[in-house]
Amino acid sequence: MALFSGLSAFPITPMTPEGEVIAPDLQRLARRIEAGGADSIGLLGSTGTYIFLSRDQRRRAVAAAVEAVASIPIIVGVGAMRTDEAQALARDAAAEGASGLLLAPVSYTPLTEEEVFQHFLAVASATDLRLCIYSNPGTTNFTFRPELVARLVAIPTVAAIKLPLPASGDIAADLASFRQAAPGLSIGYSGDWGCKAALLAGADCWYSVAGGLFPEPAAALAAAAIRGDREEADRCEAVFADLWDLFRAHGSLRLMYAAANILGLTEASPPKPLLGPDEGLTASLRKAFPL
Hints:
This protein is of the alpha/beta class. It is 45% helix and 12% strand. The chain has 13 helices and eight strands. Strands 1-2-3-4-5-6-7-8 form an eight-stranded parallel barrel, surrounded by six helices. Helix 7 links the parallel strand 6 (158-163) and strand 7.
């Protein structure tokens, strides 16, 4: 299967309060994802709290994850405030055995399209690894228009885009606009509650938060939707219905830490100043997805 296709599962990155990666816990999560049937691991994405980690700790996370798995590729987030930092992170990821890169246009000051293009050009030139455009306007305050993506695919290593669910709710139209602008580009979506519809509409990849902890049911859902089996996809998604409601209402990051704690996979908490969910929300999580 192609690198940016199927189910890409995004785990949390367990770390100490001082920001040091807890390698055994991360390896436990990576092996769980591999055993659960995911097609790739999305390491150091937003769920992986990459922006809270130093360069050394991000490299440590990549090395630990690569050591832990044998059969699936690892796509590593290399977003950073400065272009030279992102280039260094890309080289580190390549040196530690990553299979691909995920790049968001991280910035305090919202970037122009030309700035984003030059940033991607520079980071893509740092390694030979294939690169996925990470569109996350909720955190970067930058929205990728199809016209810009059409420019970016001229960069030889740009191979995919990770899109948010469209505000319009019309995934088919959104997908069609990017297909027309960038033929041959792998197009995937995040926002777990909409990804069944995206895969049924012909998207290539589901970039999944839930898959980082619950890879088996997520892989079953992805497989059914990719082969166009709507009835089976609906059945598989029913397991997640209450969890999707919690994600939409409260976001997913804090909930995934709580779920990992409940499952006994790590004792790590979200990096400060983030706080875990309160007791009431944790109880709702237990009911939404029996843990």
